[in-house]
Design brief:
- The complex is a heterodimer of chains A (about 110) and B (about 110).
- Chain A is mainly β.
- In chain A, strands 2, 4, 5, 6, 9, 10 and 11 form a seven-stranded mixed sheet that branches. Chain A has a four-stranded antiparallel sheet with strand order 1-3-8-7, with no helix packed on it.
- The termini of chain B are far apart.
- The chains are: A mainly beta (about 110), B mainly beta (about 110).
- At the A-B interface, strand 5, strand 9 and strand 10 of A face strand 3 and strand 4 of B.
């Protein structure tokens, strides 16, 4: 049973480009969460999604950031017109409906904006 | 904001027990205590969680005080690979409440 899969592991983008980060939850998990970790800082919640629905996006920046979790396929975190301050590790987590044991996290995508 | 308070850092000798405290004085009756850890550059890893009874699994033990205002995570025989940031989090089980990470405790296990 594969864990939460995130790709790419490392992503380099030039300022102004778009970044797409993908997350495939564990089999049987229908809830997906995205977190961002800036260098030398803690994990900050960004968004919580269920299939085809955004449940809580209170941590998402108001502009340039969007997330989706379609009926088929992985969850996507999209950052448009990236800036240097977007450089961070982005972690995805998933949980089943019952959520008895909290979240399972992926290994993260490290975004570097040059 | 995180609802817990943890020491910024702790040290432990390899092979000894590591006892990591956490204060959660405003915990509600239906909130669980969860512990995660993050080994450098990796995704956080679930360790254990509990409501009011002490819990033990293959990784650790969780001791929750009777008034539930504090808890201690115990790693019985710390190894160098246990060096990590340990996060104590309180939340209701299930539902749509997100995990809110505080600053955690940086545990360094020394040889």
């Amino acid at each position: 049973n594969a864990g939460v899969m995130q790709n790419p592991r490392h992503l380099v983008r030039r300022r102004g480009q778009e970044a797409r980060l993908r997350c495939s939850p564990m089999k049987g998990h229908s809830h997906v969460y995205w977190y961002r970790q800036l260098p030398e800082e803690g994990l900050k919640f960004m968004v919580y999604l269920q299939k085809e629905n955004i449940i809580d996006e209170s941590g998402m920046p108001k502009e340039r950031f969007s997330a989706e979790f379609p009926k088929e396929g992985p969850s996507i975190l999209r950052i448009q017109q990236v800036v240097r301050g977007d450089s961070a590790a982005y972690f995805c987590a998933s949980s089943p409906e019952s959520d008895s044991y909290g979240y399972t996290f992926g290994s993260g995508t490290r975004l570097t904006v040059v | 904001d995180a609802k817990t308070t943890q020491p910024t850092s702790m040290d432990c000798a390899e092979g000894r027990a590591a006892n990591l405290p956490c204060n959660h004085s405003t915990i509600s009756g239906n909130e669980y205590v969860y512990w995660y850890r993050q080994i450098h550059s990796q995704g956080p890893q679930y360790i254990i969680h509990g409501l009011k009874n002490n819990e033990t699994n293959e990784m650790a033990s969780l001791i929750i005080t009777e008034d539930r205002k504090s808890s201690t995570l115990i790693l019985p025989h710390a190894t160098l690979r246990d060096t990590a940031v340990y996060y104590c989090i309180v939340r209701t089980q299930g539902g749509s409440e997100k995990l809110v990470f505080g600053k955690g405790t940086k545990l360094t296990v020394n040889p």
